Amino acid sequence: xxxxxxxxxxxxxxxLLAGLFVVxxxxxxxxxxxxxxxxxVTSEAESNSAAPAVxxxxxxxxxxxxxxAANPATVYIQVKWKVQDxxxxxxxRDPISQFFDFFWGIQPYQQPTQRITQGSGFIIDAxxxxxxxxxxxxxxxxxxxxxxxxxxxxxxxxxxxxILGSDATLDLAVLQIEGADGPxxxxxxxxxxxxxxxxxVIAIGNPYGRQFDHTVTVGVLSAKGREIEIxxxxxxxxxxxxxxxxxAAINSGNSGGPLLNIRGEVIGINAAVHAxxxxxxxxxxxxxxxxxxxxxxxxxxxxxxxxxVWHTDVTEQIKNYYRFPDTKxxxxxxxxxxxxxxEAGIQAGDVIRRINDTDILGRDDLENxxxxxxxxxxxxxxxxxxxxxxxxxxTLGNKPAE
Length: 402
Prior knowledge:
The protein has 402 residues and is of the alpha+beta class.
C-alpha cells in the first residue's frame, strides 16, 4: 500500500515538472491564449455597453465632425416680398390743402416698407436643389425674390433661387439655386422611421438671421408622432401631424435647417418651436419629405387623392336623432361642388362606413384611408342612406391647393 502511494506521488511530481518545462520553453502559446480570452471578454463588454460611452470617450469630437461635414450644405435663405400697392397721397406743402386733408380725414401717404423673411435650408443635390420650409419662402408666383447664401470651400456667395415646388400642408418647399455651376456640397438623407426616442440629434441653422449663421445645437429626440396647431401671421390655424419633438435649441431663423443624427444624416427638417415652452422644438420627419420630393421637383406640388366632402363623426346624439344602427362611420355634412364625391352621387346626410375593405370608424380613418390612394384611383364606398346600404364607385381626384 505504501509502495503504491509513493508511486502516485512520484507520477504527479513528474507531470508537474513536465508542465513547468513546457511553459518555460513555449510561453508564447499561453500568452496568446490568454490574450484571446481577454479580447473575447473585452468584445462582449463593448457589445453590451451603452452607446453614450462610445460617444463620449471614443470620439469626443463626434458632434464637431458631423457639424463640419454638414455646414457647407446648410444655407441661409432671405426672401424679399413684393411691396403691396397702396393708395398714394402725399401731404401737400400748402397749409390750406393740409387743412382740408385733415378735415376730410385723409391720411398722409406713407411709403410702404418691404417685408423680408429669413430662414435656413440644406442642399440635397449637387445641382443646387435646396430643401426648406414652405412658410420660409412661400409659393411660386407670389413675386418674392429669394436669395440663398452658400458658404463652402468649393462654392461661396449669394445666389438667386427659384421655387421648384411647395406644399403648405406639409410645410415643405424645394428651391433651385441659379447663377452658379456645381457641384454643390450636399448632406445625406437618413431614415426617420429608424430614429429612436432619446438618441442624440444635432440642429444646424441661422437663428435670428445671418448674424448667427451656421449655429450648431445638440439635444435628443424627445418624442415622435407629435401633433401641433400653429396660427400663422394671417390668423389662419394649421394643424401639423407626425412631427418629431426635440430639445435641441431651435429659434426663429432655424426653420428649414437640418436635424441630423450622430451619423451625419438628415432625419428631420426644423420647422417650429413651442411658443409657451423652452427647449421644445419640432421637425418634419425626412421620410415625409422623401415621399413627395419627386412631385415637388417635377410637378411643383404634391399630388393627393381627394374625395371632396366635409364630414364629422357620428355621435350618440346624431345616431339617435337619425336612427342610425350604430356610431360607425362618418356623416357627410357637405359635398364640394364639382368634386369626385358629387360626380359619384354622394349626398349630404350619407354615412360613409367603408372604403374598399377598410372600415371607417371616425374622421381620421376616412382621411387616412383616402391618403393611401393616388389621384385617378377608383375605390368602392359603402354608404348608409336612409335605412339602406349602398355601394358607390368613386374615382378619386387631385386635391386642390386651397
